């Protein structure tokens, strides 16, 4: 247990650093493109990628997860996984090419036809990814994933910015994504050499695990990835661009916080699936750290979104601020529970599917009613209402997920909800401080540098307030061995190792 926890923490740290640098490149790329392009460009890409995501999820066969859980995968298992993935990629690519015309006709924009046809190539390329790459996760070795994350983002960044500067076209977003995918595939074979061959020898074995996960992912995609398709049917393309930009920004920002932990959870939980008490303890510790980090970040985004957008990309994107704020709220709520890793590790993928179906039944009527109520008040209010409906559905989904975690790992709801108690109270204190500072010291600087420095001062004040509040609440609760201790140990351990390496080099 101690060794697994240590390797889990190291893995999370590697992925965190990789995510931080990769998402920094992604954020810079998004901001540069937002300066050059217009909201309509982001809207076109949002609709196209949403259609691709739905089609990909419907045919998803997560054989990699099956290989992680497999006790002793052989070479033929990896050859089978490659074959299944390649066949699936070819089918999806052809389907996207054939559907490109009808989709463009439905949304009344012929540009969607060409975008979807090019994205089809990206889907096929990604299907050729080296299946042995999952051995890094299985063995809890993550520094190679760090190399891949940085490299693919760097190549995508250079390609996207170059195309945007030369052509000032939405193609910058597409070419950047294709360049990243191509780099990822090539590096997967460089980092873990493998010569695949076509065989379906173990297809039953792999798909028997994957089928319920496939259905669950399909339902999840209809829940959360179909937003641009639905919104695009009722909103002008430029408002879809506001949604696409806001969603892209928050996705990049929050990925660097929760993905390092979430990406290490499934292989770690798979090692503990025969020891339910140990699994429950590991889950609570991981989720505790996630809540401790994500909640204050979401609070900062909610309060500082407007000046951040103004400074970074200008006033033409200010209508995207509510999108960013609501997305931040949803990300904070979702950080309270990680059902998928624990359900997959314990072979409860059928429960994931039924959960997702229930959410579809609840979520889309809520969103539909919200759109109907806001319809007379213009497209901007329709977009905000739809997102608020999604926020309500997210809250319902979080509660359902917690009840499933309780049934799988025997963790009471009270313990799960308790993970967010101190972070929520500390965030309330931080919000009050930021509100007070905003009232006393409004953003009056005329220069961008002055505005940025004032914003930075607000952020540091909020961070200090949160840290002090957490420390006080932790002491009031009797200094428990909790996420606060785990996070402190991670930071101190990393600092000591860094110090040791610097001394050795000097």
What would you note in describing this structure?
The chain has 506 residues and is mainly α. It has one domain. It has 20 helices and no strands. The protein has helices spanning 2-36, 39-58, 63-69, 75-107, 111-126, 134-138, 143-167, 171-191, 203-225, 227-234, 237-271, 276-313, 321-334, 339-345, 349-374, 379-409, 413-418, 421-440, 448-476, 483-505. It starts with a helix and ends with a helix. The mean pLDDT is 83.
Number of helical elements: 20
Q: Write down the domain tally.
A: 1
The shape, in one word, is globular
Major pleated sheet: none
The total of beta strands comes to 0
Helix content class: over 70%
* Mean of all residue-level pLDDT scores: 83
Give the end-to-end Cα distance, rounded to a whole number of Å. 36 Å
**Unreliable stretches:** none
Strand content: under 5%
Structural Rg: 23 Å
Structural class: mainly alpha
Keywords: Cell membrane, Membrane, Transmembrane, Transmembrane helix
Subcellular location: Cell membrane
GO cellular component, one term: plasma membrane
InterPro entries: Poly_Biosynth_Transport (IPR050833)
List the helices and strands and how they pair.
Blueprint (H helix, E strand, L loop, with lengths): L1 H35 L2 H20 L4 H7 L5 H33 L3 H16 L7 H5 L4 H25 L3 H21 L11 H23 L1 H8 L2 H35 L4 H38 L7 H14 L4 H7 L3 H26 L4 H31 L3 H6 L2 H20 L7 H29 L6 H23 L1
């Amino acid at each position: 247990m101690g060794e697994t926890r240590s390797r889990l923490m190291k893995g999370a740290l590697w992925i965190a650093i990789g995510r931080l640098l990769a998402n920094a490149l992604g954020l810079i790329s998004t901001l540069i493109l937002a300066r050059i392009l217009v909201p309509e460009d982001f809207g076109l890409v949002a609709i196209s990628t949403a259609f691709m995501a739905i089609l990909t999820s419907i045919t998803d066969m997560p054989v990699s997860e099956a290989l992680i859980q497999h006790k002793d995968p052989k070479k033929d298992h990896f050859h089978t996984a490659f074959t299944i993935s390649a066949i699936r990629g070819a089918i999806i690519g052809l389907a996207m090419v054939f559907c490109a015309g009808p989709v463009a006709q439905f949304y009344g924009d012929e540009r969607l036809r060409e975008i979807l046809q090019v994205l089809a190539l990206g889907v096929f390329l990604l299907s050729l990814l080296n299946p042995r790459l999952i051995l890094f996760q299985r063995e809890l070795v993550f520094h190679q994933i760090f190399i891949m994350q940085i490299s693919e983002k760097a190549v995508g960044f250079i390609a996207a910015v170059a195309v945007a500067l030369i052509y000032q076209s939405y193609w910058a977003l597409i070419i950047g994504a294709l360049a990243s995918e191509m780099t990822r595939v090539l590096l997967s074979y460089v980092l873990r050499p493998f010569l695949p061959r076509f065989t379906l020898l173990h297809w039953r074995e792999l798909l028997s695990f994957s089928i319920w996960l496939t259905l669950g992912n399909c339902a999840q995609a209809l829940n959360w990835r179909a937003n641009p398709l639905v919104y695009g049917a009722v909103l002008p393309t430029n408002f879809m661009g506001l949604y696409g930009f806001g969603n892209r920004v928050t996705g990049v920002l929050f990925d660097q916080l929760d993905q390092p932990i979430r990406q290490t959870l499934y292989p770690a939980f798979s090692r503990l699936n025969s020891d339910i008490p140990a699994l429950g303890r590991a889950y609570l510790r991981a989720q505790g750290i996630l809540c401790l980090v994500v909640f204050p970040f979401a609070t900062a985004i909610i309060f500082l979104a407007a000046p951040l957008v103004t400074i970074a990309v200008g006033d033409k994107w200010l209508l995207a601020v509510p999108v960013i704020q609501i997305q931040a709220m949803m990300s904070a709520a979702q950080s309270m529970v990680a059902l998928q890793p624990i359900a997959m590790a314990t072979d409860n993928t059928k429960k994931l599917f039924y959960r997702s179906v229930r959410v579809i039944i609840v979520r889309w009527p809520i969103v539909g009613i919200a759109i109907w109520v806001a319809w007379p008040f213009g497209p901007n209010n329709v977009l905000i209402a739809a997102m608020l409906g999604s926020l309500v559905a997210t809250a319902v989904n979080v509660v359902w997920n917690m009840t499933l975690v309780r049934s799988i790992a025997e963790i009471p709801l009270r313990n799960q909800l308790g993970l967010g108690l101190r972070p929520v109270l500390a965030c309330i204190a931080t919000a009050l401080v930021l509100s007070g500072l905003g009232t006393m010291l409004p953003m009056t600087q005329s220069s961008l540098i002055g505005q940025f420095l004032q914003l930075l001062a607000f952020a540091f004040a909020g961070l200090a307030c949160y840290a002090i509040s957490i420390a006080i609440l932790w002491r009031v609760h009797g200094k428990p061995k909790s996420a606060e201790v785990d996070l402190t140990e991670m930071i101190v351990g990393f600092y000591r190792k860094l110090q040791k390496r610097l001394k050795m080099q000097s």
